[in-house]
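Comment on this:
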Amino acid sequence: MHPMVKPALRRAWRNLSCVQFGVTPAHAVVLGPVDPATGSLLGLLDGTRGMELLRAEAAALGLREGRLEALLGRLAEAGLLADASVRPPGGPPGARPGRADPELDAVRADLASLSVVHQAPDGAARALAARRDLRVQVRGAGRVGAAVAALLSAAGIGRVEVLDSGTVTPWEVSPGGLPAEAVGERRAVAARRLVGRTAPGGRPPHDARRRPGDGTADTGLSLVVVTPRDGLGAYVPDPLPAEAWLTTGTPHLYAGVLEATGVVGPLVLPGGTACAGCMQRERVDREPVWPRLPAQWRSGAPHPLPACDVGLAQAVAGLAAAHALAFLDGDLPSSTGARWEVSLPLLEWRSAPVRAHPACPCGARRDAEGEHASAARGPQDTMAG
């Protein structure tokens, strides 16, 4: 083991005996009391030294035997300790601990973020390695869907499939999505090229040469992200295509922009949280005439020109990708059983729960309402003693 204090967290001394790691209340930790010798030892935890050398350094500082191990234990308990000897995927196996690996430059910021979120010393490396084995399907390659696919690929998801039909139009081009040179090209082909280009290191993902089917009853998917180009299928989800995902137990997340309004969520966990059918039934309970409206909106040809501001599309895509990654990494984001909505021009994000309907055959449990609420917390205090 080559211990190091997680470098992603900024360090500042609150006084002569207490040091704070991190700035933001969500992840900041205060360590104390810390005597001068222990403070010097903290400065040596940069990942370049193994345990034997660190024990010698601790003894040279006048620290008693076992003090190093006690300090490392407290740092690990507080989620501040990383192991520089654990090599993330993509790095050379013989690389020297604590030294930069150019092969990891593309995901270095992602690893730093994962190190903050995951407390275990090897948590960041394990999370990034796990992403390489995941398969995600993005259904829709407009401004939102293409950007979501690119973000998921850049974050290290091993297989990102994009399903769509038709050809790219000039108003679907965006800085974070399909490029201008893709106009006139088949959307599915352009999206696959985008996914390959944004993969870490420029390496194509595992499925770059794969030609997936329509995916309506696909299995083996870690997540489906529903990002229809016109946004209607995200704002008013159609229960019919979701039936296959409910049957196969495939989690799915809705995201899109409709009429200058962006929406992210709900993230549907089949049998656990409310689905599109629940949303439809709940709306009918409030508005008995409701079924007439989606039927008219969905009939005929697709809307020729969606009102999809490029900035709003990027914001929605970024939030959707972040929620998807949080779920894929093993957490339940706030879109689980809820949806986030924002509209131009004020851009005030608001969240509302999506409740399971007792008459829906999806089997979602009704007692899960509200269990995913999150609360802000301040810096943790941990005493090194």
In short: The first strand starts at residue 3 and ends at 5.
